Every structure is written in C-alpha cells, then in structure tokens.
Amino acid sequence: MKRVLITGAAGFLGSHLCDRFIKEGCHVIGMDNLITGSLDNIEHLMPKKEFEFYHHDVSKFVHVAGDIDYILHFASPASPIDYLQIPIQTLKVGSLGTHNLLGLAKAKKARILVASTSEVYGDPLVHPQNEDYWGNVNPIGPRGVYDEAKRFQEAITMAYHTFHGLETRIVRIFNTYGPRMRLNDGRALPAFIGQALQGKDLTVFGDGSQTRSFCYVDDLVEGIYRLLLSDYAHPVNVGNPDEISIKDFAEEIIKLTGTDQKIIYKPLPKDDPKQRKPDITRAKEILDWEPKVSRAEGLQKTYAYFKDYLEKNAQKASQI
Ligand code: UDP
Fold it and tell me: What's the CATH fold of domain 3-180+215-241+275-293?
C-alpha cells in the first residue's frame, strides 16, 4: 500500500486529491494548518483507517513517522483576496514550505509533485501559454507574493531534482472549479454563483473582456495523477483550453441559476491578467490527458453543490 502525504488536504484541490488517492488504494496522510482550508472538506474521510490528518503548518519543520512514497504539495492560499489578507504566509508556504517538503522527500526517498500555477506566466504576453514561456510577472504587485513564491518553488524543485537526483514533478494549474471551493474566497466562480443564489447582482471587474479558461476539478485531478505516475520532471500545464470572457461567464451563470440578476461593473484589480488559456500540447503528448468535462456539465455540478451548501447553512443558522 503506497503512503501519500498531501499538504493543503483540507482545501479545495487537496481534499479532492485525498479522495482520489484513497480510491486508488493508498494510505493518505493529510496535512493542513486550516488557515484557508476547512475540515468540512475532509470530514467524510476522518473515520477511514486509510486516512490520517495532521494539523500542521508546513512552513515549519515537517515530521512524519514511517515511510512515504509520494508527496503532493498543495498547501497555499490560492485567491487574490487571500494574497492580500495573508501575504507573508503565502510567501512562506510556497518557499519555506516547499523547502521543508523537498527535504522530507529526500529523507524518505519519496517522489514529490508540487502545485505550481498559471500565475507564473503573470499577465501573459504570449497566448495561449505554453510551458516554454517565461512569463510577465510584477514581483511587487498584489499577486507578487503568490506568483514569486510559486516561481521560487519551481526553481528549488528543479534544483533538488538536478543536484540531489530527487524524483520531482511540477504541475502548472490553470483556473479550476468545482464542489468545495470557498464561497467567499473572492474568485469569479463562487462569487458569481453565490451572488446569483443570494439574489445579488453579479460583480464583474473591469469591462469583463479579460478571459479565463476554467477546468473542472475531476479533470484536473486526473491530469495530476497521471503526471505523478509519469517520469517527466519539467513543468506541465494542466487546464481546460476552453476560453471565455468574464462577462460571458457571468452571463452563463445567470442563465444557469435561472435568476434575473444583473451584472454590475467594478474596478479591475491591479495586475489582473487580461487573458489566460493553457496550451496543453505537452500534457496530451506526455500524459495522454485532456479535459473531458464540458463547462456546462461542470457548472451544473458546482451549482448543485453551492445550492445545497447554502441551504444547509441557512438551516444551521436558523437552528442556533
Ligand atoms: N472577477 C470578477 N468578479 C468577481 C471576482 C473575479 O469579475 O467578483 C474577475 C477577476 O478580476 C478576473 C477573473 O474574474 O479577471 C477571474 O478571477 P479569479 O479570482 O477567479 O481568478 P484569477 O484572476 O486568479 O484567474
């Protein structure tokens, strides 16, 4: 039975990865400091003997007893609002945290996969973005704490690979969505669905002409799983190339929720990328992977989750 350490286990992506590795018959050690993660996301795993949870901040020395075969480093704040509220932790988990986990991987002779991001491309001047593009990042802007920590993460991961011969994998994750996203993390999708469900107007930043390409979480998890099991150490983009403007996206969500909310326009945050779309040629070639879930299908599932979540919370609030 493989033993897998997943950091950020109580977060959106981390919790889905825990589910997947348990389904694959692994023993999963989940770790999270619960700054942005929630135990609600892994509550269903707690009774399982194949799962254990450590409440720990990976920016501090990480100790795990026994063997580890794989480490997946997914601990990090991951929305622009989080970066503004907890900039130092964001820098530390991507830099010090990654260093600690690389050290642990070396000590345990484990393979490590680190979660990088399309943010390493910054506000890209090349479109779509392939892995050979070096990016256009403002190191001292509001997103700099995340972007530069992730760029450092890639650098130190490659250094451990070349200098220590460690088995490393780097996934560059593009915008991903699905159940267990935080309703109030400030990201476009939970913001729009939450607003529509609560009868509020949808807040589009700027004129809404900026683009993103949204990947459903199950597709992402499959790509990550394949990358971990591959022998490829260079970065691989994993995301859905189906690009849409944020204004059109807001309109899709209004249609999906069947509400008659309007769109209101707010100022565009500083350094908000104007366009983003992954070139997934490498993932197709090396992992034989491409996304399978259409936006219509993925949004439907995500909407059902948020609807249920809000109803349950309303019930809880009325019981207090
Ligand atoms: N956005 C928006 N309204 C919101 C939240 C986000 O128009 O209430 C925009 C945001 O400015 C960006 C896009 O939606 O252009 C995607 O934002 P998100 O935070 O989801 O991801 P990121 O910018 O990190 O790709």
Answer: Rossmann fold (3.40.50)
